[in-house]
Amino acid sequence: MLISSTRCHWAQSTNQQLVTYHDQEWGHPEFNSYRLFELLSLELMQAGLSWATVLKKRTAFEAAFQNFDYHQVATMEPELPKLLQNAAIIRNQRKLTAVIKNAQAIVKLETAGTNFSDFLWDFVHHEPIIHDVPTPSAVPKTIPLTDHVSHELKHQGFQFTGPVVCYSFFQAAGLINDHENQCPFKEH
Questions:
Q1: Residue 129 in 3-state DSSP?
Q2: For the residues 18-29, what does the mean pLDDT come to?
Q3: Annotated catalytic residue: which of 30, 38, 51, 180?
Q4: Is-catalytic flag, 21?
Q5: What domains lie within the chain, and their CATH numbers?
Q6: What are the boundaries of the signal sequence (predicted)?
């Protein structure tokens, strides 16, 4: 068992769900397009809320969004009114619409011959960017790369993918490794 004080500052918590997320998912390079869609969806849901809130509702999101199968989610526009009534999830119409539109954008990329995972990993030349993070305050909210990613995603039809959401998504999916330097999950 790791001593919690060595984890990233944000994961030094009594919330076991948050600690498990940090230890087992956050910052680990993800290459599966379905999992990347899930992480993007959760990150946009988190905007303006706490990550603990999103994690608490994750199972409900999985059920509501067909286990984040973007082929199925792409057809869910008629189900939006039902989603807005689902008290188990975050019922923000803009965010729910964005999840559906983003699934449609991924399907469109695939139809054009572009794998979503490859599309994203091309931005970092298929190698995680490892930042020097000596303190929690050293982590920016966005960087020029994620400003560019945001622009490109919007160009492809994605919604609710501003630079801050993109940066958080890249951190979560391991395209950017922002574990603090003392964290045992930092990869040098």
A1: strand
A2: 95
A3: 51
A4: yes
A5: 29-177 (1.10.340.30)
A6: none
